[in-house]
Amino acid sequence: MPGPHASIYIRLIYHKTTTIDTKMAFYLIVTTTCLIIFVYFVLNKRTKGSKPLNLPPGPPKLPLIGNIHQLAGLLPHRAFRDLAQKHGPIMHLQLGQISAVIISSPQLAKEALKTHDIALADRPNTFASELVLYGTTDVALSSYGDYWRQMKKICTLELLSAKRVQSFGPIREQELDRFIEFLRLSCGKPINIHKTVTKGINNVVCKASFGKNCKQQHALLEFLDELARVNSGFYVADLFPDFKFLYVVSGLRSKLMKLHKTLDKIFDDIFEEHEGRRKHGEPQEEDLLEVLLKIKEEDGLEFPITNNNIKAIFVDLFGGGTDTSSTTIEWAMTEMIKHPSVMEKVQQEVRKAFHGKTKITELDTQGLSYLQLVIKETLRLHPPIPLLLPRVCREQCKIGGYDIPIKMKVIINAWACSTNPEFWEDPEDFRPERFENTLIDFKGTHHHYIPFGSGRRMCPGITFGLVSVELFLAQMLYNFDWKLADGLNSINIDMMETEGMLAAKKVHLYLIPTSYAPCI
């Protein structure tokens, strides 16, 4: 019979053997994959035309992986800016199979987004977007063409027009009242600014989209949080799109299919609930779903829209209307806590404008000029999406004298443009006053300031998002004074950003609210 330590020894041998077997399997998969990729590149090079292209310069590339190693562990927008300082404002990078041009200067961004707007109007097609966005039939990532133009027009004129956004004022005011009440009950205790604001803005977007009595609201918002977590991850398969088996081996395919099935069921329940109210003759709110269902029933659309197309539009709305707004509010509060004089100045403006009112409406926020400067400066330093959604070249063109061939992916580093020292004095300082007496705005006409993009593919929901940012900040600054939790000071606030498409604050901001006198 073995001694008392024998079972431990056996377990150690088993664990070691299992580890070795796992490693061997892993190396076998990696080696096979690399060989296949190598053969692909060799054959691909041989089939290319003999006429050389004058591509932009770039850092040295390694076989198979290209420039991936130069980005590993770094925030892409900052890594691209650092590389641009060495290799120039327009660079060519090879990221696995993905050939990309990175633009980091306002002058070249203008060439890309204005001069060659149509030539660069397409979007890349990915496995994830095809699945989650119902065949990429949304607006943000849909291929450029007649269908995209139709859906962009519907979004611009019917869903996100100034008149439509204004019509949701009562919903915003109701949710703001709940938000302020929660903060009052939390006075004296640290609260997570991002989590609290996100909940309030999610409620606004959900009720504007599906009505005030949507039973699936909680399930939908929980799901979208999970989807955001999955989308923020890095997947090697995305860099080798021709090798579909990588999506299977990595588990990404099954994960995304499961998420898509859950999302589809939630949307089907929402649509069924909405149709049920219609059939029973209940008064219909003019929510966004009702607007889209009416458009769906109309004759004369060049491309008749389906329920799946409508679902894809709502994925866009929630992605662009919640995370970006709450991220901007958290960064604004962070910068104001770090710069007390800015906080004091904006609070004086807000409290003078509201003049002791206990009930604030959207009309009361008009004319808050310094608050507008604070929001502009926040978006300059912390654009929610620092690398604009990639464009794909559909007609060969030249930028900065270099060839941009068809199918080349073009990425604009909006953050690098908005912190370019040729256009901004002390570019990484937070200074709202720099926007005083300037005509710089969010409309994409000033290419050193493009937090929402520019040209045909710029964000169509700017008004929808900004009105929530302004209202939530105004209410927070009017009703409460703010301080950091005990033991923390403004000097050592962590300013690191998250990895992924959205540059949110990595360590969320916790602040303690104290009720301001008129609200006691």
UniProtKB/TrEMBL annotation:
PROSITE patterns: CYTOCHROME_P450. Keywords: Heme, Iron, Membrane, Metal-binding, Monooxygenase, Oxidoreductase, Transmembrane, Transmembrane helix. It is a single-pass membrane protein. GO terms for cellular component: membrane. One of its GO terms (biological process) is sesquiterpene biosynthetic process. Its cofactor is heme. It is found in: Membrane. Its main location: membrane. GO terms for molecular function: heme binding; iron ion binding; monooxygenase activity; oxidoreductase activity, acting on paired donors, with incorporation or reduction of molecular oxygen. Heme binds at C459. The chain crosses the membrane at residues 24-43. Belongs to the cytochrome P450 family. This is Cytochrome P450. It comes from Centaurea solstitialis (yellow star-thistle).
